[in-house]
Amino acid sequence: MSQKYKRIVFKVGSGVLTENNKIAKDRMLALVSLLAGLKSDYEIILVTSGAVSAGYTALQLDRSIKISKKVLAAVGQPILMSSYKNKFEIYGIDTAQILLTEDDFDSRERTEIFRQIINTTLKHGILPIVNENDISTTEEQLFGDNDQLSAHVTYYTNSDLLIILSDIDGYYDSNPSQNPDAKMLKIMREITDELLTQEEMPTHEFASGGIVTKLKAASYLMSKDKEMFLCSGYDLKSAKEFITKNIYNKGTLFTNKS
Ligand code: ADP
């Protein structure tokens, strides 16, 4: 059977990875076991949030203070990575930590560097785990959210698909947390400027994205003829079925292909 996708980027948000200010270990394990299962047939790159919330488990600083947030990220990044490492080890998989900033996408030389790093880790069976390096950087050097970072990673690593694992199970025709009659859209072929410029606040304490950054990520990828699938990070069935069987009951596919 020919595979539709070969190289896939997964992005998981802090809402999925955190529960009550702690890493949600069972959800992380479910994700790791999905990726471990897919790894024999697909090349997998993981973009993960969660460093700031992981840092908060060790040190309760006020994350609304810029420097405190950086300290939390510095404390939390190794906690997050060791949590992943322990779980991937169950499946005999080694991981690499790759920290990027928006600046890394600025020049051909720089994109070439991380493309080669990712290609080499994948070639050796190592699973690259990417996060935004928001520790020793200024706001101007950052995307500020991992949705757009992961879209850029998808394009520049020649990946075929970005899967966004979210706290919501798809994209709705209006905000489902405000409108109980909101309907999930199975497919989006176009994203209007109006949707991209709508004001939207991140939905929880550690979130930096929200639905607008996901739409921006999708719009960027569609402009590059790539696809994005937004689905639940709590129940990974949709992600798995979409990749392995090309079917899905829940989730939204953003594509410009007919
Ligand atoms: P994550 O932490 O997974 O990155 P966010 O919480 O930042 O996710 O963004 C997803 C949230 O965006 C949903 O839980 C929902 O409350 C909100 N939202 C606003 N508008 C929409 C919409 N049209 N469709 C889906 N979710 C929406």
Q: How would you portray this structure in words?
A:
This protein has helices spanning 14-17, 25-38, 51-58, 66-90, 108-123, 146-156, 193-196, 211-223, 237-245; strands spanning 7-12, 18-19, 22-23, 43-48, 95-100, 127-132, 161-166, 171-172, 184-185, 187-188, 227-232, 252-254. By secondary structure, the protein is α/β, with parallel strands linked by helices. It has one domain: Carbamate kinase (3-Layer(aba) Sandwich). It has an eight-stranded mixed sheet, sandwiched between helices. A two-stranded antiparallel ribbon has the order 2-3. A two-stranded antiparallel sheet has the order 8-9. Residues 13-16, 166-168, 171-172, 174-177, 200, 202-204, 207, 209-211 line the site of adenosine-5'-diphosphate.
The set of bound ligands, ions and cofactors reads: adenosine-5'-diphosphate
Query: What number of structural domains do the residues give?
Result: 1
Specify the structural class.
alpha/beta
Strand order of the largest sheet: 5-6-4-1-7-11-12-10
Identify the CATH homologous superfamily: Acetylglutamate kinase-like
> What is the straight-line distance between the termini?
21 Å
Largest sheet, in brief, is: 8 strands, mixed
**Element order: H for helix, E for strand:** EHEEHEHHEHEHEEEEHHEHE
> Per the principal axes of the C-alpha atoms, what is the gross shape?
globular
Question: At CATH's second level, what is the architecture?
Answer: 3-Layer(aba) Sandwich
What is the rounded Rg? 17 Å
Unreliable segments of 5+ consecutive residues: none
Mean pLDDT: 93
